[in-house]
């Protein structure tokens, strides 16, 4: 199939006109080549050629032939995406307000520095430093939002699903993700689904085998009745009427049959754990010896009594539990395949795909991959798994685009792949990846811990889309394979190739593919699959047929053997995988680091987040307070690591735009705000305890500044809510989590980050609550109270503020000359802190008041210690009267 046909397919239903969206010229020629769409650019070149054949007889016929060619080209290559600007009525006041607020902030800080609080220099000094940092931090966050794009109304492959541990990540959830990919609306011969199983677990393998059988029913059902979403769990759990808009009379019968089949499928998947356990050596050993052998790892037998190849029968000394040999197994063959070759085992399953009426229907290719794990080799977690998938897929299917999904991120809208791929094919050869937002199922209705994170997904990422593009967020990201391989964007690549050709020396790894082995490793099949750099700079439709057409032939045994070799542990030795090639190693945030490398090379990314539809959703979310704090801790640790690494955004190359650089700087420096924020949250308590305030007197000037800063912030927020199409409640939850995370997990990250840079210890993964594993009570996990040391600072802040309010009230009431303004200032300030910590307090209470006693003991002790410390510091003589009646020794 030609690229033109592919484009026409992907643009189906979206483009009804032929005019150029970039230059707004229909069939005419605009003067500047750099603002033209590919079609107009061709027209422009054509006129230039015609002019060159001055008055010659050939001019007219040349013009006619070229015109016909371009018209055909134009028809095939209509633009499929367009950028919609934020209305000026919102953007202009938004930018003006930012400017105005910067001026007010400048004046406010000057005023604050000039007007010292001589009575409480300590309070004054700390508050001024904190406020200056907040302004700096606000600037870092606000400036990249100067040029947002609201929504992209747009019309997507080698899909990677990563799974790590079937005990923590339900195989049923992984199976649902795989089914949603297989049922996506994309040409089956163009779609390959890879499931990476880092545990090499037979349980996951057999679940995927079940998927391949069930897909033969599920995919035809989805296509026949056009059902959405195409993950069966989410489809059968839909709250809306399933029969709405369905006109085929056999729908009711088919749906009932599918529901029965899916229930049986679930039972089979859920029974696998026990079934596999019974077949494992470890289980037998446990049964016999009543102890689980620590090492060597257990050998396991498959259902047909064959040895499961991802376990050793005779393990070597030193093998750990999760060590295993590599496995590549083609579970569903591509349409052109006659037989299914397997790596390590001979019993390939071929599943006939029958639709509900008994007619054969083709299914996409599906491959199970477990990369090798051995003692002495670092596995690099998810980044390592993705790099192994990138190499194996290059040999098996070599799709020019890669889409990666966490085990729980299923395709919610069947058009998701088509939409994303349109951005890639639109002549936007500089686009390295298209990022989709994360939308969650199973979050409590009030979204207590801001799990939906709409401020990030709908405001910050959209804002970056107006600069150089959103960050890579780890999952739901469609990559250009060449960008993953670490190549420069087309123009830079072309320039470099030309320079190299001219000078004919230098590090020519883009010119002489023989040096590729140092970069990509020794697999000749892998190196042969990399198209030569020359085609990088040409539009997709202008490249030789073989670089854009389906490169997949039948998956042969030699290619499976080669795929096995590139997923061995030692393959990456002395190569650039994990550094200049593939996903970056050594970072808790391999995603952001990988996207950062690409932006630094001059690539741009695109955000694909239409408001009216969710392309991907996640079936699991950390809705428990402790889990959420640990998730924030892990992410913030990645940010701190980035700050202290050679990827510090202050050191970027000139290829990265200034505002994009600021956005990365804000991302990596953000946890430092926690120090100032924590100190600032203690200030109201200190104010109330001491009877002082952060300014000497609450004057009209001070109030005017506070009012101006608050009002501008409110209007900015309203405008931001408007252009990002979010709700006020999303913004407010985000603000609360910013304070909760800032006073807990971010502080932890500041301790853990540098330690990790020095020691390289990996943080533990995030625990998530899967909606597919139903609890007796809905959102029961939300109310479970679990202790983590990250809770100590916010508990202390709350306790101290409460004690201070009590002391402040008592002193003011009993005093003969009460300092009302200082008291009210401190009270308001304290209230501000407490309402931000409200979700945290609720999280501590649980549902039935089952808060661990340690929480109260800790909070009481720390709060009393700090109060006494403060009073002692205030009164060196050792005795001071507070409020006339309360005295401290
Ligand atoms: O050794 C590993 C560890 C994890 N995974 C998979 O990676 C995905 C993410 O897991 P993990 O990183 O433990 O969970 P989270 O903390 O939830 O990950 C968030 O944060 C990561 C780092 O920023 C991103 O890559 C993820 O997309 C994002 O969901 C899951 O599908 C895992 O199965 C592996 O394949 N191998």
From TrEMBL:
GO biological process: cell wall organization; cellulose biosynthetic process; plant-type cell wall organization or biogenesis
Span of the signal peptide: none
Residues binding UDP-alpha-D-glucose, per UniProt: 168-169, 198, 381
Key words of the record: Cell wall biogenesis/degradation, Glycosyltransferase, Membrane, Transferase, Transmembrane, Transmembrane helix
Active site (catalytic residues): 198, 591
Principal subcellular localisation of the protein: membrane
SUPFAM superfamilies: Nucleotide-diphospho-sugar transferases (SSF53448)
Residue intervals passing through the bilayer: 89-108, 120-140, 675-695, 702-721, 787-809, 821-841, 853-873
Pfam family, one: Cellulose_synt
Residue ranges with Polar residues bias: 511-520
Subcellular location: Endomembrane system
Residue span of region Disordered: 498-520
Single GO cellular component term: membrane
Full protein name: Uncharacterized protein
Gene source species: Zingiber officinale (Ginger)
């Amino acid at each position: 199939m030609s690229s033109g046909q592919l484009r026409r397919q992907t643009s189906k239903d979206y483009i009804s006109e032929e005019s150029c969206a970039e230059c707004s010229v229909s069939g005419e020629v605009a003067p500047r080549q750099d603002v033209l769409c590919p079609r107009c650019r061709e027209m422009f070149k054509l006129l230039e050629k015609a002019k060159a054949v001055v008055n010659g007889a050939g001019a007219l016929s040349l013009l006619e032939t070229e015109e016909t060619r371009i018209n055909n080209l134009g028809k095939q290559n209509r633009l499929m995406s367009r950028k919609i600007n934020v209305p000026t009525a919102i953007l202009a006041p938004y930018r003006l307000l930012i400017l105005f607020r910067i001026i007010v902030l400048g004046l406010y800080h000057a005023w604050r520095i000039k007007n010292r609080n001589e009575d409480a220099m300590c309070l004054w000094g700390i508050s001024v430093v904190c406020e200056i940092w907040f302004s700096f931090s606000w600037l870092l966050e606000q400036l990249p939002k100067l040029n947002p794009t609201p929504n992209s109304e747009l019309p997507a492959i080698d899909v990677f699903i990563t799974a790590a541990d079937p005990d923590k990540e339900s195989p049923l959830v992984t199976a649902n993700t795989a089914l949603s990919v297989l049922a996506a609306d994309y040409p089956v011969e163009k779609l390959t689904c890879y499931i990476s199983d880092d545990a090499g677990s037979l349980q996951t393998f057999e679940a995927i085998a079940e998927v391949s059988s069930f897909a033969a029913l599920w995919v035809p059902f989805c296509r026949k009745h056009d059902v959405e979403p195409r993950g069966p769990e989410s489809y059968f759990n839909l709250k809306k009427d399933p029969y709405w808009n369905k006109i085929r009379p056999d729908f009711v019968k088919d749906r009932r049959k599918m529901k029965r089949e899916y229930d049986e499928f679930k039972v089979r998947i859920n029974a696998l754990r026990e079934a596999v356990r019974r077949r494992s050596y470890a289980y037998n050993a446990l049964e016999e010896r009543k102890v689980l052998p620590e090492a060597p790892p257990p050998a396991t037998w498959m259902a047909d009594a064959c040895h499961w190849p991802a376990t050793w029968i005779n393990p070597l000394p030193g093998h750990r539990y999760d060590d295993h040999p590599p496995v590549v197994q083609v579970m569903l063959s591509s349409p052109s395949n006659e037989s299914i070759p397997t790596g390590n085992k001979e019993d390939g399953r071929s599943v006939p795909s029958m639709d509900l009426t008994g007619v054969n229907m083709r299914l996409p290719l599906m491959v199970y991959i477990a990369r090798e794990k051995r003692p002495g080799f670092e596995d690099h977690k998810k980044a390592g798994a993705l790099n192994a998938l990138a190499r194996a897929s290059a040999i098996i299917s070599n799709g020019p685009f890669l889409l990666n999904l966490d085990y729980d991120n299923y395709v919610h809208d069947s058009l998701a792949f088509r939409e994303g791929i349109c951005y890639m094919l639109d002549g936007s050869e500089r686009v390295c990846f298209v990022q989709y937002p994360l939308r969650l199922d199973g979050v409590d209705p009030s979204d207590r811990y801001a799990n939906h994170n709409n401020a990030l997904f709908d405001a910050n990422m959209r804002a970056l889309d107006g600069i150089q593009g959103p960050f890579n967020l780890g999952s739901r990201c469609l990559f250009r394979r060449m960008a993953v391989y670490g190549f420069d964007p087309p123009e830079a690549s072309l320039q470099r190739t030309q320079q190299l050709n001219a000078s004919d020396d230098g590090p020519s790894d883009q010119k002489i593919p023989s040096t590729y082995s140092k970069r990509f490793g020794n697999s000749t099949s892998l190196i042969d699959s990399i198209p030569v750099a020359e085609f990088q700079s040409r539009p997709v439709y202008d490249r030789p047929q073989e670089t854009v057409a389906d490169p997949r032939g039948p998956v042969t045994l030699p290619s499976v053997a080669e795929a096995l070799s590139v997923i061995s542990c030692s393959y990456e030795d002395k190569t650039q995988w994990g550094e200049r090639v593939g996903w970056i190693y050594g970072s808790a945030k391999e995603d952001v680091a990988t996207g950062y490398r690409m932006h630094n090379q001059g690539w741009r990314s695109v955000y694909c987040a239409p408001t009216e539809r969710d392309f991907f959703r996640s079936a699991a979310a950390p809705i428990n307070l402790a889990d959420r704090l640990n998730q924030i801790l892990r992410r913030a640790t990645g940010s701190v690591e980035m700050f202290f690494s050679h990827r510090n955004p202050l050191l970027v190359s000139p290829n990265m735009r200034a505002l994009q650089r600021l956005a990365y700087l804000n991302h990596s420096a953000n946890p430092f705000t926690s120090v100032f924020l924590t100190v600032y949250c203690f200030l109201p308590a200190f104010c109330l305890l001491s009877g002082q305030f952060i300014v000497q007197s609450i004057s009209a000037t001070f109030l005017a500044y506070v009012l101006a800063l608050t009002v501008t912030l409110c209007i900015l927020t309203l405008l931001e809510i408007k252009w990002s199409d979010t709700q006020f409640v999303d913004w407010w939850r985000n603000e609360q989590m910013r304070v909760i995370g800032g006073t807990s997990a971010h502080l932890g990250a500041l301790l853990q980050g540098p330690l990790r840079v020095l020691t390289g210890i990996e943080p533990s993964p995030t625990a998530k609550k899967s909606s597919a594993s139903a609890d007796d009570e809905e959102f029961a996990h939300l109310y479970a109270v679990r202790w983590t040391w990250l809770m100590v600072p916010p508990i202390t802040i709350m306790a101290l503020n409460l004690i201070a309010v009590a002391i402040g009230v008592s002193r003011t009431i009993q005093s003969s000359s009460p300092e009302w303004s200082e008291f009210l200032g401190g009270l308001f300030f304290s209230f501000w802190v407490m309402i931000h910590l409200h979700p945290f307090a609720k999280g501590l209470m649980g549902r039935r008041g089952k808060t661990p006693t340690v929480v109260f003991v800790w909070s009481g002790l720390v709060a009393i210690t700090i109060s006494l410390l403060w009073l002692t510091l205030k009164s060196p003589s050792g005795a001071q009267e507070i409020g006339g009646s309360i005295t401290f020794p």
